[in-house]
Structure prediction request, 204 residues.
Amino acid sequence: ALASAGIRARRGAGEDLYAWLLPWFNPNPAPADGDPDRLLEIAPYPGDEDLPYGYDFAERLTLGMPRSDNATATWWFDGLPHTLVTVQGLRRAPEIGHMTGERQAGDHVFALFDRLPEHTVMVLTLTLRPQDLTRNHINQVRRAAVGDSAEAALTREDADAVEREMAQGNKLYPLSIAFYLRGDDLNDLRTNTNHLNALLLPNG
Prediction:
C-alpha cells in the first residue's frame, strides 16, 4: 500500500535507532558544544560486530549523567527537564488518522500531531494477548455491571458491542498512549504539558 503511494519503507536497524535516540537523550551535549546534530560525528554508531564484553546499548545513548527528580516527576538530560504524560482513557473512539491525518479549520490545513509541543514523542504500546483472556475479562466486566443504573446499563452495552466485534473476527488488544515532553526549564515544561492537555482534551 505504501509503495503504490510512492512511499518507500525499509526496516530500521540498530544504527537507525541509535541515530534517532542519541540526540533525544542528549539535547544539550557538552562534548558537541550544545549541538545535538554533531553527536554522530563525535560518538558514531559502534556497529554490531566485535563489541566488547558487557556492552550496553542503552548506556551508549546517554553521554551525560541523567538524574530523576521525584518531587517534580521529571527526568533531566543535559540539564533539561523531561516528563511523561499518559492518556488515561478515550472519551470517544478515534477516527482513522486521528493524530496524523490532515484536518481543515477555515483556510488552515493541519494535523493534530503537528500542533504538539516541539520535541514531543508519542508512544503507542500494543500488548498482544490471547483473545480468550480478553473474552474472560469482558465477561467479568459484564457480570460486575449489575443493577438498573445508567452506568451499569452503558457498561453492559459496551461489553456486548465488544463481543460482537470479536465474534466478527476483529481482534481486541490493550493499547496505551503516552507522550514524552521536554522543556527548557520547569516553567517551560509546565507550559508544554498544559499545551498538550489543551490539545488532547477537546479531541477525545
